[in-house]
Amino acid sequence: MADVNRSWRLAARPQGMIKDSDFAWREEPVPEGLGEGEMLVRTLYLSVDPTQRGWMEMDTYMPAIGIGEVVRAGGVGRVVRSNAPGFSPGDLVSGLVGWQDYAVMGSTGFVAPFKLPPGVPPTMALSLLGLTGLTAYFGLLEVGRPKETETVVVSGAAGATGMVVGQIAKIKGCRAIGIAGGPDKCSFLTGELGYDAAIDYKSEDVAQRLRELCPKGIDVYFDNVGGDILEAALGNLAMRGRVVLCGAISGYNDMRNTRGPRNYLSLLIQRGRMEGFIVTDFAAKFGDAVREMAGWVAAGRIKDRVDVVEGLEQAPAALRRLFTGANVGKQLVKVSD
Ligand code: NAP
């Protein structure tokens, strides 16, 4: 008898915080036939990403997930069968596996699957050496372009992307200041990750703390959250400061009412620059970036942190954790061994 493929399908376009009723659980036989260029992949880990909330609601830089479709998600899996050139049974691959046990994947596309570099654990391939680590790397270095001794401030600093931004800033000789929710996350930043200072936005006045900590202003602000924290950072921008527009999670549960910063004219007064990017813009350079970051890992200069929830059943709850701030580091779901 065929194995069962369990999946979560999108049942409704979420409004506000995602609810269990936005998804439908389905159990079906594992697909048998494979087309030319396709492979069957057994999911091991799912990457949990704020952008999935946007995909569920509307077209963004990718089309919205259709109602009834498997929820789109990145992840790592093991190839079971393959008609795809260059991929063989047993290979570990990273790609859009979706919220399901088994995925039929093509070998090309916007986010084409790729084989994990030898020796890289699946969790690190989805975190520090995966898309969030690469987002930090390219957003900071290519969009923010920090210079030695400059002050880099990052919001969402204890999350998957933010934790890497501050550590790379330190490697590049900058001052790193993180903004995160709660004293434990702030201690994680200054204690474990080597940030110079941390601001707890849930109990402190962010604008005032930024004024105190950055008397000469912020040279690079890496924005993961948008909203009030973006305004506080813009209000403390240094002359020729750069704002890296990476994401705005504070608004993702109400995407149709996104508002811009009221004080955007700070950019004019400070001759500043604000620039958005999507990490895949830099896909041609991913290999070089992974090699450089793997070197930093080997030299003990950068740390990874993953937050693993067990079981495909928990995927919706794991996604909610990003919006309540329950995760420290990269949120993953372990689906199978
Ligand atoms: P993450 O930071 O690991 O998780 C999200 C974090 O956001 C939570 O832990 C929470 O931390 C914080 N948060 C949630 N609601 C908030 C609110 N209302 N105000 C302030 N902080 C809030 O997630 P990630 O995957 O690394 O993503 C971070 C950002 O990068 C997101 O905006 C995402 O869309 C963006 N991103 C962009 C690209 C790109 O190509 N441009 C690629 C990947 C990710 P606290 O406990 O500190 O609140």
Description:
Helix content is 26%, strand content 26%. The longest helix has 14 residues. Helix 3 packs across helix 4. It has 10 helices and 15 strands. The chain is α/β, with parallel strands linked by helices and 337 residues long. Helix 8 links the parallel strand 12 and strand 13. The protein folds into 2 domains: 154 residues, Medium-chain alcohol dehydrogenases, catalytic domain (Quinone Oxidoreductase, Chain A, domain 1); 150 residues, Rossmann fold (3-Layer(aba) Sandwich). The chain binds NADP nicotinamide-adenine-dinucleotide phosphate (NAP).
The CATH topology of the largest domain comes to Quinone Oxidoreductase, Chain A, domain 1
The whole-number mean of residue pLDDT values reads 96
Q: Under the CATH scheme, which architecture of the largest domain would be assigned?
A: Alpha-Beta Complex
Low-confidence parts, pLDDT < 50 over ≥5 residues? none
Task: Write the H/E string, N to C.
Answer: EEEHEEEEHHEHEHEHEHEHEHEHE
Give the terminus-to-terminus CA distance. 21 Å
